């Protein structure tokens, strides 16, 4: 089974501070994703990665950056957090190789509150 | 652009009665369609997927969905609800035009009454 660990699971921070969320997978899946979940919006794609150092933007990428220096780790950074970035963030991986399968395995989420 | 509309934000059923969650989609190309489930404080889990094979798709935990191109719908059903079905359900669409990125509906919360 695919394993995903997100850290931290909960974080409270202040406006203007930098925040980094980490997603770690235990297998060598190529595709990794960061989503945010907000009431009434479902999940929206922030950024995704298709390999080490290969990343691309999703539909809500403004204010976020990502990095993938190792296959197993995908980091999401908020350079200067704002209250509109208060959300639950989910990391996901494609368990069947390729973006076209739609079969994602999700982590348990990181709840971020920006005061 | 691809999109999905989940027609009910909340559905309440009695245990043992049928469940129907409605989803309409918009896609300019042959879509793939999915239903995901999210239990409280958990990540999402794939229930079932449609990818242009059989229009009636069976998933896990007794759920099934029917793809109807003429109605642009992909409704999720289960004949008999169980207490463990209480969760939030997301209808999802992807297609080649959008590089297979997933577009999620807003979600339907299911409550099961004893």
Q: What would you note in describing this structure?
A:
- The complex is a heterodimer of chains A (115) and B (114).
- In chain A, 0% of the residues lie in helices and 57% in strands.
- With 115 residues, chain A is mainly β.
- In chain A, the strands form two sheets. In chain A, strands 2, 4, 5, 6, 9, 10 and 11 form a seven-stranded mixed sheet that branches. In chain A, strands 1-3-8-7 form a four-stranded antiparallel sheet, with no helix packed on it.
- In chain A, β7 and β8 form a beta hairpin.
- Chain B has 114 residues and is an all-beta fold.
- In chain B, strands 2, 5, 6, 10, 11 and 12 form a six-stranded mixed sheet that branches. A four-stranded antiparallel sheet of chain B has the order 3-9-8-7, with no helix packed on it. A two-stranded antiparallel ribbon of chain B has the order 1-4.
- Chain B is globular.
- The N and C termini of chain B lie far apart (41 Å).
- At the A-B interface, β5 and β10 of A face β6 and β10 of B.
- Please provide the count of β strands of chain A: 11
Distance between the amino and carboxyl termini of chain B: 41 Å
Give the overall form of chain A.
globular
DSSP summary, beta strand count of chain B: 12
* Residue share in helix of chain B: under 10%
* Helicity level of chain A: under 10%
On the 0-100 scale, what is the average pLDDT of chain B?
92
Instruction: Give the count of helical stretches of chain B.
Output: 0
The oligomerization state is heterodimer
What is the overall silhouette of chain B? globular
Largest interface comes to: A-B, 23 and 22 residues
Radius of gyration of chain B: 14 Å
Secondary structure tally, helices of chain A: 0
SSE sequence of chain B, one letter per element: EEEEEEEEEEEE
User: Pairing-aware structural class of the strands and helices of chain A?
Assistant: mainly beta
Q: How would you spell out the order of helices and strands of chain A?
A: EEEEEEEEEEE
Mean pLDDT reading of chain A: 92
Structural class of chain B comes to: mainly beta
- pLDDT < 50 stretches of chain B: none
What amount of the residues of chain A lies in strands? over 45%
């Amino acid at each position: 089974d695919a394993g995903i660990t997100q850290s931290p699971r909960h974080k409270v921070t202040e406006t203007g501070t930098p925040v980094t969320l980490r997603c770690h997978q235990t297998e060598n899946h190529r595709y990794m994703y960061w989503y945010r979940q907000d009431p009434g919006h479902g999940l929206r794609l922030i950024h995704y990665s298709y390999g080490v150092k290969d990343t691309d933007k999703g539909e809500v990428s403004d204010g976020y950056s990502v990095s993938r220096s190792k296959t197993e780790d995908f980091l999401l950074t908020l350079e200067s957090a704002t209250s509109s970035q208060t959300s639950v963030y989910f990391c996901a991986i494609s368990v069947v190789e390729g973006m076209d399968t739609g079969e994602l395995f999700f982590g348990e989420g990181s709840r971020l509150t920006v005061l | 652009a691809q999109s999905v509309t989940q027609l009910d934000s909340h559905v309440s059923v009695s245990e043992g009665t049928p469940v129907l969650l409605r989803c309409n989609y918009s896609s300019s190309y042959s879509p793939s369609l999915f239903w995901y489930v999210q239990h409280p404080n958990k990540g999402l889990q794939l229930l079932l997927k449609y990818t242009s094979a059989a229009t009636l798709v069976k998933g896990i935990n007794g759920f099934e969905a029917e793809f109807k191109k003429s109605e642009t719908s992909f409704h999720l059903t289960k004949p008999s609800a169980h207490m463990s079905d209480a969760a939030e359900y997301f209808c999802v669409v992807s297609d080649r035009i959008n590089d297979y990125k997933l577009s999620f509906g807003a979600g339907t919360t299911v409550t099961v009454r004893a």
